[in-house]
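Quarterly update from the structural biology core.
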Amino acid sequence: MELPRRSSKAWKLFKYLVSQKGNRVQQADLIEVLWPEEDCSDPQHALRTMVYRLRSSLNGRFTLGEKELISTSQGSYMLDPTACWVDVEEFETLCTYAQSYKEGKPGRAIQLYQQALSLYQGEYLPECQEEWVIPLRAYYRNLYVKSVLSLSELLQQNQNHQEIINICQKAVIMAPFEENLHYVYMDALIQEGKLDEAREHYQFVEVHFQQKLGDKPSSELQRLYQQTQLQETEPQKELQLIRQYLSEDKDNNKEGAFFCNPENFRLFYQLEVRRQERNQLPGVLCLVYLKKSAVLEKECLASETVKTLKDVLLQNLRKGDVVCRWNEFQFMVLLHGCDVEGARTVIRRIKQCYRQACETGNIPVFFRVLYLKSEYGLRGLSRK
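Predicted structure, tokenized:
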């Protein structure tokens, strides 16, 4: 079906009504879509004329009997949902059915997902630049990605790695910045023994992400890439590569305490508790914090003060100690092999170094200490 070139707004109207899936659209909304920033002396009349022209162009192409192709009611318009077949609606319906069969009838779900994915050919209405299409475009793209991942999960259960590869080859082009798709694709290549292809794909992703996003792939994707390097080595060389990989730490200096995120800190704490239970080694969990005040409400000053405290902790604790940024004004510290007297000595040293390093002397630092040996309990030690 074609409309005259001068009827670009009629095309826009048709696309918008189709996208509403049989829902009524108010006249004011259509005027905003068709003439968002244009002066129109009589937009209601212009809209009625546009609808008439669209009806005239569509008549004869769709047969609805006595029904109106575009119906009007109380200042609203609606395109009859039975007037034409729309691929995105079929795509959405198939995805919904596939999801419902995923648990009870996985074989049927696989068939429905495959039918749905065959319909997806890229961004929804790629020629449209209007704002109203953006959320719809994102919705269908996200539904596509979710369906690819669900189908891959079902195929993984049957060890059908080659079919996953076939699906993901298209998917990583359709949604090039979805890391989950790259992960599933690389994993399937590895499972099929196609290590060279997996390595090449990772290298492509690494360059692509750096150029387009200014970022590198996630740690999960990096670990998967590491597997492709390890699987073809002799055991001794493999062990050396593993040690090299485990030793890589770009976020920490070689001197001073070890800095990590809260999730890793939790693992270190659990390991420390196990060591203490087995070897009766002392250990200390310490909360180091700044109390929020009017001074700290100044964003630049707060940032500088917190950075100073972090630097003091990392530079004045031992290599075996662990530090993490817990929240805005708090740090957690794990002191390995440290008893009560040792903890007091450490705290005095941190206080002194902090006072020397902090340019704003009226921002005190506080400590709360939990000794891992239960007989010591919880102690509160604040700045004098």
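DSSP finds 14 helices and nine strands in the chain.
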